[in-house]
Amino acid sequence: MTTGLSPEGTHTATAALGTLIRGHRLRIGLTQRELADLSTISVRAIRDLEKGKALRPRADTIRLIADGLRLGPRARTALEESVSRGHQGGAGRHLLTERCAPPVPLHPLIGREAEAAILAEELRSGAERLVTVVGLSGVGKTRLALEAAARLYESGFPVLWHTAPDAVTDCLPAADEDPLADLVADCAAYLQGAGAAPTAPAHGRRPGSAAPAPALTALAGSASDELPPVALAAALGDREALLVLDGVDTARLDFARLTRLRRELPGLRLLLTADTPWNVPGERLFLLAPLDAPLPADPADPGAGADAPAVRFLLARLRRVRPELLPDEQTTAHAAWIAHRLDGHPLALAAAASWLSVCDLPTLRGIVETDPAAVLDHLADGHSGSRLRDRVARTLGALPPEQRDLLTALCAAQDTPAPDFGLDDVVRLTGRTLPDGGRMVRALLIGGVIRPSTDHGRSGFRVPCVVRAALAPADGTGATAAEAPAAVAPAPAA
């Protein structure tokens, strides 16, 4: 059994004290004033600690701050260890550790506890050094990466986070003056085959950011045109660290440069969120399906589905729109039915919840029953809702014709009372051999355009609602969003 590394006696336990305090404070949503009230420590003292001006506070001060942050035993130990070890390194390294926290998520994590625990443990232990989280757009890849990064940060890992320019964010943006953003952007550009010289184009830097911060240039101890592995190696030393590339296009990544990065930084872990896998040696493919949304409960027990992850997620979003909504049996029954009808897709559930501002829950259920595609547009931000269907349509358009044909045939079959399908159904519809059918199912799972289902007592699959909506005619002319044919052609005879 793989276990996490102990923080004692490792470089990961030497993160700057201010970084740990600030990270814990932001994770639970406290201001410096609120932490001061809870810990009975002055605001100025907390501010000095977070800025690194006070590196050796008294033990009682750390104890009171840990109490105010409600830290568990492991996090408390890491905080105390950072004090006993003191401040290490020069100004540049201090700058790195003070800026190495992951972004702050916009929403709490619901229904992904098992996935987050597995992902964080694999990265923390070093069992996996390259993990790519793949899944359909809006399924929650970024939120899962944020949680895994936060857990590694709590155990002492510096976290370097880069979001692709066209990615949909699920977190608060970094501060504009954050000098580490340039180093991380240069590293991301390096992995995509672009140079990092300051005289070259900005390669993903923020507008107006022309060159790396002077402190980081000094930290690298090298000429300004040296490649990011040199700067990272100088900044990190032999420390373990996590680099996250959120929303990256894996087709643009350079495996040879990854090899160099991993060779020169043996403690570095790389976490990607992407629509497609990289398909390189050593990659751990982490498939992220929609939230579990089982069949609605028996009418005799309408509240039985309240613990399902998709139902909990939907109820939380419904109450953001209607805080007075009580999670009684009737409300839970409606939520369970909607969650199942929308296949537990998080962004689809969030969009559906926004409709509670213009209708009640029974009416929303009726809309979903009649035309579930109608509620995929978020009322508070229709542009965001439209992008969801556009992104799904682009995913479908990139599939090989035989896979789109199969999806169309499966959608027609899902109009029957038993919407799930199995591998035998794929073989029957396509006329292909069992191994070929298995490869098609795996490819569709990796693309996120089908999801696992056990509603009917067997291992099966289902085409999610958002995919069916993208495949359906959009304007009554017969054209679909993905231009998918309506029949599946059997495999040609050998």
Automatic annotation (TrEMBL):
SUPFAM superfamilies per the UniProt record, alphabetical: lambda repressor-like DNA-binding domains, P-loop containing nucleoside triphosphate hydrolases
InterPro entries: AAA_16, Cro/C1-type_HTH, Lambda_DNA-bd_dom_sf, P-loop_NTPase
PANTHER family membership: HTH-TYPE TRANSCRIPTIONAL REGULATOR RV0890C-RELATED, REGULATOR-RELATED
Organism: Streptomyces wedmorensis
One Pfam family from the record: HTH_3
HTH cro/C1-type domain ranges (all copies): 21-69
Name this protein carries in UniProt: AAA family ATPase
